[in-house]
Amino acid sequence: MGTIVERPRKDGTVAYMAQIAVMREGRSHRESKTFDRQPAAAAWIKKREKELLAPGGLAAATASRRNATLADAIDRYTKESRKELGRTKAQVLRSIKQDEIADIACADLTSRDIVALAGRLGQSRTPATVANYLSHLRAVIAIAEPAWGFLVDEKIMVDTFKVTKRLGMTGKSKQRDRRPTLDELDKLLSYFEAGRRKRPRSMPMAAICAFALFSARREEEITTILWDDLDVEGRRVLVRDMKDPQNKDGNHMWCELPEEALRIAQAQPRTAAQIFPYNHRTVCANMTRATHFLEIENLHFHDLRHEGVSRLCEMGKTIPQAASVSGHRNWNTLKRYAHIRQVGDKYEGWPWLDKLAPKPTEGSSAAA
Known about the structure:
By secondary structure, this protein is mostly helical. It has helices at 38-53, 57-67, 70-80, 87-97, 111-121, 127-148, 155-166, 182-198, 205-215, 219-222, 259-266, 280-294, 303-314, 319-326, 351-356; strands spanning 3-8, 14-24, 27-35, 230-231, 236-239, 253-256.
C-alpha cells in the first residue's frame, strides 16, 4: 500500500508526497512523487502500483532506475525542486550537464568520476569555485536515491571532497582585504554624480555606494530593501533573504542601521516600493566600468561592505556590535577584524554625506 505524507511549505500551502514500496519475487522498488492536491497523489499511487504489479512492470522500473544518468537526476532536481534555484546554482548545474560525466548512469557513478570532473573544472576555475560546483552537485546526489530511486550512493561525494581537498583541487576562497581610500571614493562619487547631472534619471550610484559603505550591506540586499522595511525610530532595517550558506529564502533579519546610512536612505525619493529600485547586477556593472575608467585597480563593489565593517571596528565597536550591523550570525567570520585598532572615524565630517543626504533644516521633518 502507498502512503501520502503532508509537507507544509514556507508559503503556507501544503504539498502531498505520495510514496509507494513494492516487493515481489525478491525484488523491491520504492518511488515517490509530490502533488499539490491529495486526490491527485492518491490517484497516482493507485495507477503506479497497478503498473508495477503488472507482468514485467517491476523489472522495467528497476531497469529504468539503473539506466538513469546523472543528467536525468539533474533534470529531475531542476524540475521538481520547490525552491527557486539561484542564478549561480542553475548555471552550475547546466555546466555539469554539458560535461561528459552527465552521460554516466547514476548506478555506475564513482568518486573517481567526480574527481575527474573536478580536474576538468579546475583547468579554468579556482579551487573555491570548483568546491562550489561540487557542493551543488552533492545537493542533487543527496536526494536522487531517496526521492526518485536512482541507484547512486551519496557516500561518493564524501570521498570526492576528501580527495579533492588533499590534492588542492578544492579549497576556500581567499579573503579580500581591499579597502578604498578617501581619495578613491571622492573620484568615484564625483564620476557618478557628474554622470547623473547629464542623465538625471540614471541610477544614483553615489548614494548607493555611500549607503553600502555605512550600512555594510551587499548589493542585492540594498536593491531589495522596501520602504516598509525601514524602521526609522528603531534605526534598523529588515534585510530580506539574507545570504546564508544553507538557504537564504525566507532568511529575513533585522540589522542596525548607522545614522549615516539612515540619512542616505531617507534622502531617496519615494518612487517605488524599494528604497533603491534597481538591478543589483547593474550596480556592480556600473562600479566595474567606473573603476576601469578612473584606473582604480582591484576595487569591487563588495569591498564597500568590508570597508563598512572595518570602519565600525576602527570606531571601537565590538565584534557583536559590528555583527548587529553587518548581519553576521557567526562571529567567528568576523575574527579577521579583531586585529583592527581603534583609531576613530575617518569619515567624520566627510563632505559627501551632506551632499548626498543634506541634514533637514530646523522645523522640517525627515521622511518616515
